[in-house]
Amino acid sequence: MTTLTMSEVPARKMSWGEPEDPGEDNSTCSSVLYVISWIIAIITMPFSLIVCLKVVQEYERAVIFRLGRLLAGGAKGPGIFFILPCIETYSKVDLRTSVFDVPPQEVLTKDSVTVSVDAVVYFRVMNPTTSISNVENAQKSTRLLAQTTLRNQLGTKNLAEILSERESISNAMQSSLDEATDHWGIRVERVEIKDVRLPVTLQRAMAAEAEASREAKAKVIAAEGEQKASRALKEAADVIAMSPAALQLRYLQTLSTISAEKNSTIIFPLPIDMMSSFAKNQ
User: Which of 36, 64, 148, 156 has the most crowded Cβ, counting Cβ within 10 A?
Assistant: First the structure.
């Protein structure tokens, strides 16, 4: 004689009235409500058309729920569609490109400088059904994610990189946001860094540094000019020393330049040749 343990005995339902499959009961209830809705719509015709007929624009789609479940066939529209009263609800989704401003974010850069940076994000809904069923508020979620992504991206950059590499930072943000929002049915099309605000003390320090750099460059340029001028004068002196007539022509040119000025008293020196002959006689 064999005995069965409690674990080997098939479990039985305690209540005789409990249904075998809850899914079948839900399906039956849904079918009954579906039929009742149609009966109500037909009885109240044509007044029911005001409630049942809906229209969406070319740039809109309607996501329909029947008793809390997504209706098969995806989003409806554009154009006219039918809604059963009492059991069906719908949500409109705008497919146009939307834009929002990312509020100024206080960011500590890699070189320990606090800056305030804001941006603008362009996005659009690519999958209306997913944007309704997978996230509570797609636009708000994308905005909050953009703020976090902006802080994370700028936190790994130096101040000089933030000021000079805005385009690369924008592209990196766009790729990161687009990857994260893909599960929400949203595509981020463009991200732009609007403004980078520096502390007042840092602005003054940068201005002083730039001014000192310009002054240093000016001094270097002036020194180089004096060096080139002295070389040119040395070469001219060598040429004049080789030809005494050139020195006489230089005197005449100098006199011409002086005589061009007004109210000037000009003293003509003795000719160079006369002085040289006098020196020889001595």
Answer: 64
Does pTM surpass 0.70?
A: no
Q: What is the pLDDT of residue 15?
A: 38
Which residue stretches of the chain have pLDDT < 70? Answer: 1-26, 202-203, 205-207, 244-248, 251-252, 255-256, 258-282
Three-class SS of residue 111? coil
How many C-beta neighbours within 10 Å does residue 104 have?
17
Output the CA–CA distances (angstroms, integers) from residue 101 to 63, 118, 143, 195, 266, in the order listed: 27, 8, 8, 12, 75
Domain that holds residue 63: 33-94
Task: Give, for 72, the enclosing helix (H) or strand (E).
Answer: none
DSSP 4-49: --TTTSPP--S-TTS-S-HHHHHHHHHHHHHHHHHHHHHHTTTTHH
CA angle 74/126/143 to nearest 5° reads: 125
What separation in angstroms does the CA of 188 have from each of 96, 97, 126, 127, 169?
12, 9, 10, 13, 15
In a domain, 11, yes or no: no
User: CA geometry: angle at 55 spanning 54 and 59, to 5°?
Assistant: 145
Domain count, the chain: 3
Neighbours of 37 (CB within 10 A): 19
Q: Going by C-beta distance under 8 Å and a sequence separation of 6 or more, which residues neighbour residue 155?
A: 107, 108, 109, 110
C-alpha dist (Å) from residue 213 to 70, 88, 203, 219, 226:
66, 71, 15, 10, 20
The rounded distance, in Å, linking the Cα atoms of 190 and 210 is 33
